[in-house]
Design goal:
- The chain is of the alpha+beta class.
- It folds into 2 domains: 201 residues, Arp2/3 complex 21 kDa subunit ARPC3; 146 residues, Heat Shock Protein 90 (2-Layer Sandwich).
- It contains 15 helices and 9 strands.
- Strand 1 and strand 2 form a beta hairpin.
- Helix 3 runs parallel beside helix 5, helix 4 packs across helix 6 and helix 10 runs antiparallel to helix 11.
Length: 425
């Protein structure tokens, strides 16, 4: 198989050699500071630089005077992405020139490579701060600079510069410059695309780690928040019969429990909900557990809480998420009730095949209190109601807030469920 002879064929052949390192950059780019990867990178770029110097572009005339070499393109790319170790590429290129042509080409190659290294390394940090569009523009500047650098080198060191100027047509120079431009743009395109893919993979991995940590934090919060709520309620009940100093101590304990609950609440809002199996659970039992946890707190706040649930209703969902949703909603309602009445009922609707959990809040002091509705929820700013809505959505439920005339507020929760006789048991 004969080597390419025409100018364009030789140029394309050299470009194929130059673009080989792109294939390896998907492994090199993530850890260019690794000693092993630096050795691999320098080895690859050294081989490519030596090959482009070996397969130089020659004049198609019978005189066969050396016309051009693209060896400085991979060298410049190596400086930009590898840094100081690129000096080893210059050393290998100079040694190659020594064994092939003698001492004068060796000194010439070493001097020019060092000058090129100083100029490119000086702009290296600025280059990497550019956005993608800026790097494409920088590719045009670098191709022009490297092309001019090679042209000046041939002008100064060519054995017959008169021949070079008279026999190298403008068309040939334009073709060579297009080759430089194409090489730099392709490098920028593929390397930046690879770098973007790597960064996306790293961000995904980082997000997964955060998800695991936040999931652990939230699982702890779910385990601790409900007991804290119950303990706080019992302490508040005990405080009603406490005297003097004991009352102060209980106030301090209640304050600390409130502070702990707020911290845990932040964890539950920031982190995703813990995953779990969706399974059917008996609503009557779960609602009784919720009432047991929140009843003491309601009594202390002067709120009358009643919970009525049909005994044979089963809901398909996640028990922990459902508990947290109802507890968040009840906590908000109790804080806003102002010594009123909260009635919770759970029934099965045969028409829609849904379980309806309805909460009615009747305030005694609605006209004297500014907290007589759910304005924060409507604006999407209330923590408890936002948590309730998010948790219900995760288990396939919906939440609707309705305002009746006067003092009564109504909250309707709709969930997938069925009655016991439909289960065949």
């Amino acid at each position: 198989m004969s080597l390419p002879t025409s100018l364009i064929e030789q140029l394309l052949f050299n470009l194929l050699i130059i673009l080989v390192p792109i294939y390896f950059f998907q492994w090199i780019l993530p850890t260019t500071k690794s000693r092993i990867n630096q050795v691999i990178s320098i080895s690859i770029f050294s081989i490519i630089t030596l090959l482009t110097n070996l397969f130089t572009i020659e004049s198609p005339s019978s005189y066969e005077e050396l016309l051009w070499s693209l060896c400085y393109i991979p060298y410049v790319i190596c400086i930009l992405y590898i840094g100081k170790p690129a000096l080893l590429v210059a050393l290998f290129l100079s040694i190659f020139q020594l064994f092939r042509h003698g001492w004068i080409p060796f000194i010439e190659s070493a001097l020019l490579s060092f000058i090129l290294f100083l100029t490119i390394y000086f702009i290296r940090n600025s280059y990497h701060r550019l956005n993608r569009r800026g790097k494409y523009f920088a590719s045009i500047v670098l191709s022009t600079y490297t092309f001019s650098f090679m042209f000046i080198k041939l002008w100064i060191f060519s054995k017959d510069e008169i021949y070079l100027m008279e026999n190298t047509s403008l068309k040939a120079l334009i073709i060579l410059f297009i080759g430089y431009l194409l090489a730099y743009i392709l490098y920028t395109l593929f390397i930046e695309t690879t770098h973007k893919t790597i960064m996306q993979a790293e961000n995904t991995h980082h997000t997964e780690k955060l998800h695991m940590v936040s999931g652990l934090a939230k699982s702890i919060a779910y385990e601790m928040r409900e007991p804290l709520t119950a303990v706080r309620g019992f302490i508040q009940l005990s405080r009603n019969g406490a005297m003097n100093q004991s009352a102060e101590l209980l106030d301090t304990a209640i304050h600390e429990l409130n502070r702990s609950e707020n911290i845990l609440k932040e964890y539950t809002m920031v982190s995703p909900s813990p995953s779990g199996e969706m399974k059917e659970f008996r609503l009557h039992i779960v609602m009784n557990e919720i009432q047991l946890l929140i009843q003491a707190y309601a009594n202390h706040q002067g709120v009358k809480l009643t919970v009525v649930t049909e005994r044979d209703i089963y809901v398909n969902g996640h028990v922990a998420k459902f508990k947290q949703a109802i507890l968040s909603l009840l906590t908000y309602a109790i804080n806003e009730a102002d010594y009123g009445i909260i009635q919770v009922s759970a029934t099965y609707c045969e028409k829609t095949d849904k379980v309806i959990v309805e909460m009615n809040k009747d305030q005694k002091n609605s006209f004297s209190s500014s907290k007589h509705s759910f304005p924060s929820f409507v604006k999407g700013k209330n923590v408890n109601l936002f948590t309730t809505q998010r948790l219900l959505e995760e288990i396939g439920g919906t939440l609707i807030v309705k305002k009746r005339v006067g003092r009564v507020m109504r909250v309707i929760i709709s969930l997938e469920g069925r009655k016991r006789d439909q289960l065949g048991t």
